[in-house]
Design goal:
With 183 residues, this protein is α/β, with parallel strands linked by helices. It contains 7 helices and 7 strands. It has one domain: Vaccinia Virus protein VP39 (Rossmann fold, 3-Layer(aba) Sandwich). The protein has a 7-stranded mixed sheet, sandwiched between helices. The radius of gyration is 15 Å and the shape is globular. The mean pLDDT is 90.
Length: 183
């Protein structure tokens, strides 16, 4: 299986079917962060057709790793399982359900990387649930914080109230990500 070609086909399918996958620039940045940090345990919330998950898993294979990904869409979930199989990705635990219900149930309380790309208006809730499930130092990335800022009002208030430091990286022409790091 040529994973590069598989990912190119998955990207093309996403574009042709308006699947809201992360951009190639975001993929490169996030996989570089995974590599630099030697990420071993990652949580992903919201994954469209799992283009991002497969990219992350390919990088994570280089270490002893675990990726848990949660998505609410049954169609996406079943597509994901097929895509994982075709890409020969084995160590992804894909959960189909509402991340707000599933995150508290996760026995893992040791994630060192969290990628939040779920329902934008729930970003604050996702962040609040993920913080207790992280290691002593971690990276949390929240996608689409420029384009959908108005849908994330509660997130901005939460960050200010809890004195959480962050950086906004405008990595795409019309959007960017928020990076929160604890060392």
């Amino acid at each position: 299986m040529d994973r590069t070609q598989f990912l190119l086909n998955l990207r093309k399918y996403g574009i042709e079917n308006t699947v809201p996958n992360i951009t190639d620039v975001s993929v490169r940045l996030l996989t570089d962060l995974i590599k630099i940090q030697w990420t071993k345990t990652m949580l992903e919330i919201g994954t469209a057709n799992w283009f991002s998950s497969i990219n992350f898993a390919i990088e994570l294979e280089k270490t002893w790793w675990e990726l848990i990904t949660i998505d609410f869409s049954p169609k996406s979930h079943w597509e994901a399982l097929e895509n994982f199989k075709e890409a020969q990705i084995n160590n992804i635990h894909a959960i189909l359900w509402n991340a707000l219900d599933e995150i508290p149930k996760l026995e893992n309380d040791y994630f060192d990387f969290v990628f939040i790309d779920g329902m934008m208006r729930r970003s604050m809730d996702f962040l609040d649930l993920c913080l207790p499930k992280t290691k002593s130092w971690w990276i949390i990335i929240i996608d689409d914080v420029i384009k959908f800022r108005e849908k994330m009002v509660w997130l901005w208030e939460y960050l200010e109230e809890n004195d959480i430091k962050y950086n906004i990286l405008p990595i795409d022409p019309d959007d960017g990500i928020m990076m929160i790091i604890k060392k």
